[in-house]
Design a protein that fits this description.
Aminoglycoside 3'-phosphotransferase, Chain: A, domain 2, 5-stranded antiparallel β-sheet, globular, 39% helix, two-stranded antiparallel ribbon, 347 residues, Phosphorylase Kinase, domain 1, alpha+beta
Length: 347
């Protein structure tokens, strides 16, 4: 099994020279910190950061998981759109080069904010960053998938039902102990599906740490990590993003226990209203929002359970995966409180 912290460049270097223009010199590789899914490396040419390599992890993987081929396809489709992405350069499906399939993208030099509270910024700067995230998410959902060659990027219709079924299967495949809240959600979600049919490109994990901002202004230069992208309902994507407002700082880097006005960060309701105006979606139905947010948390809990399962199986890409995945029950509990009406829709 390959050590995810290092990357053997003996076969990679000649492959890069053959497939990526302008590659000459000695190739170096350094793994980016963080990340629980697809190991990602900064590639340097003669010590100058030039490219990023993103590959599948080692080990036996769940069907459809870690689909770097899909990441390459969607970023290639969006590279000249209103949604900024790190320009994709080459895809390699030969596992013999670095141990698993991978793709190469241009290195986007800028700022990455891991903490949703943006502690290094002042209130006006934080407000501008959040407004920019809101703008780009609305821009993504405004793109007609057919116009960028993605009409077949996901199945049409029944998005919520398919997501519930998919993440229930994923959760069952990695279940290590019974989580009572997950059992309740597995019953509640199919029974309360609102039947929304809109279909757009959804990122699937749109959050501040999956974006690179320009070094000198609150402008996104690259949205990263498209592993969970597909065609689906925009509200599901918004809910995944807005989960940050529902979880605390400790353990989640969230905003639920933050003084938002003092920080300059909009409230959940204000943020949603701005998105609705930008996207032309109109007023968001409170039950639709409650359902979408519940589903987002259910999915997050299933993902965390998968991370934990990979950790105990020995093939997770981060040493913190076991701790990260063990929080599946906490997120499931939050989801059930929203589903059952104990926590309101905040609209």
């Amino acid at each position: 099994m390959t050590d995810v912290r290092t990357l053997d460049t003996s076969r990679l270097a000649p492959w890069l020279r053959d497939h990526v223009a302008g590659v000459n010199g000695e190739i170096g590789a350094e793994k980016f910190a963080g990340g629980q899914s697809n190991p990602t490396y900064l590639l340097s040419v003669d010590e100058e950061p030039r490219f990023v390599l993103r590959r599948k992890p080692d080990g036996v993987l769940l069907p459809s998981a870690h689909a770097i081929e899909r990441e390459y396809r969607v970023t290639n489709a969006l590279k000249d759109s209103a949604v900024p992405v790190a320009r994709p350069l080459a895809l390699c499906e030969d596992a013999g080069i670095v141990g698993t399939p991978f793709f190469i993208m241009a290195y986007a030099r800028g700022r990455n904010f891991w903490d949703a509270r943006l502690p290094d910024l002042n209130p006006a700067e934080r407000a501008a960053v959040y407004d920019e995230m809101n703008r780009v998410l609305a821009a993504l959902h405004a793109i007609d998938p057919a116009e960028v060659g993605l009409s077949d990027y996901g199945k049409p219709g029944n998005y919520f039902a398919r997501q519930v079924a998919r993440w229930t299967r994923q959760y069952r495949a990695t279940e290590t102990q019974r989580i009572e809240a997950m059992e309740r959600l597995i019953e509640w979600l199919p029974a309360n599906d609102p039947g929304l049919e809109a279909s757009r490109i959804v990122h699937g994990d749109f959050r501040n740490d999956n974006m690179i901002f320009a070094e000198d202004e609150p402008r996104i230069i690259a949205v990263l990590d498209w592993e969970l992208s597909t065609l689906g309902h925009p509200l599901a994507d918004v809910a995944q993003h807005v989960m940050a407002w529902r979880v605390p700082k400790e353990g989640y880097r969230g905003l639920s226990d933050a003084d938002l006005p003092a920080l300059g960060i909009p409230s959940e309701a204000d943020y949603l209203h701005t998105y609705a105006e930008r996207s032309g979606a109109g007023a968001i139905d409170p039950f639709h929002w409650r359902y979408a947010l519940t589903l987002a948390m259910f999915r997050n809990a299933a993902i965390r359970q998968g991370v934990y399962h990979r950790a105990i199986s020995g093939n997770a890409s981060s040493e913190a995966a076991a701790i990260h995945g063990a929080r599946a029950g906490e997120i499931a509990g939050l989801a059930w409180r929203i589903a059952s009406g104990e926590d309101d829709a905040h609209l």
